[in-house]
Write a structure and sequence with these properties.
Elements (H helix, E strand, L loop, with lengths): L1 H24 L1 H7 L6 H10 L3 H12 L6 H13 L3 H11 L5 H24 L5 H18 L4 H27 L11 H15 L3 H14 L7 H14 L23
Length: 267
């Protein structure tokens, strides 16, 4: 009898706490405290598995209020954002998950970050945006990093191969299109990465580090079709190198019209 009475008093005490303390702490918080309700993170996982990604993100955000530094919550949020095709947001969430010291989690974050970049690249290319190729390169880098941590990740291995093939196809297509362009047609506008490489090369040239400047330009020309108009800069730097060696520079070639716009005056 004493045991039954004790249990009854315990249940009565919990009920009393719930009824009197709700205005201060909130009923959900008290239920979680006594283990009578699942956490927001678990609710988010349930919503995710039910394909209710908006609700999942809402619950992960609620859980993050108590655990703002949780890499697991960041990873789970990234998964929901990826499902919603919110690729920049997913990439940002996975970047936070990469701060984890858990190798398995970091490998998964790299893999899914690769997926986010790949899908982002697909969407960009479908919209006619050149930066899609850069997204594919980012995807490839993250798939490789995932493999470095977990060499047994068969999906990552397959995605590395698929992405490499995709990049080659796009570059071959761009090269073919450039060959078919009339001589008086302007090549594509250099993208942000190409412009950054040109700025770096010009800075090196100002420091009289011509060989390094030439290497920077040759590298961007080999991997970025939008940098095609920079070939004239390579020739000019090469001429400077030859002159410094006492050699005769190459004969002048016709320059791309855009390469002449806003000349630097330093080479």
């Amino acid at each position: 009898m004493m045991r039954r009475e004790s249990k009854a008093w315990i249940r009565l005490g919990i009920a009393a706490l719930l009824s009197f303390a709700v205005p201060a702490l909130g009923q959900n918080a008290l239920l979680r405290f006594f283990g009578l309700e699942s956490s927001p993170a678990k609710q988010g996982n349930r919503a995710y598995h039910n394909e209710n990604y908006d609700e999942a993100l809402k619950k992960y955000a609620e859980a993050a209020q108590d655990q703002p530094a949780s890499q697991i919550l960041a990873y789970n949020s990234g998964n929901a954002e990826l499902r919603k095709k919110q690729y920049p947001e997913a990439i940002a969430s996975y970047a936070k998950a990469l701060e984890s010291k858990d190798g398995a989690l970091v490998s998964k974050a790299h893999y899914n970050m690769g997926n986010a970049y790949f899908r982002k690249g697909e969407a960009a290319l479908q919209a006619g945006q050149q930066e899609g190729i850069s997204d594919y390169r980012e995807a490839l880098a993250h798939y490789k990093k995932s493999l470095e941590i977990n060499p047994n990740n068969a999906d990552a291995k397959r995605n590395v191969e698929v992405t490499q093939i995709r990049i080659k196809e796009l570059l071959d297509k761009k090269e073919q299109q450039q060959k078919q362009q009339p001589n008086n047609q302007k090549p594509p506008e250099p993208d942000a990465k190409a412009k950054e490489a040109l700025a770096r090369a010009l800075q090196l040239a100002q420091q009289h580090r011509y060989a390094e400047a030439k290497s920077v330009l040759e590298a961007i020309l080999s991997e970025d079709p939008t940098a095609a108009s920079y070939k004239s800069y390579v020739q000019r730097i090469d001429d400077v190198i030859k002159i410094l060696k006492g050699e005769k520079p190459s004969p002048p070639q016709q320059q791309d019209p855009r390469a002449q716009q806003g000349g630097t005056g330093v080479i």
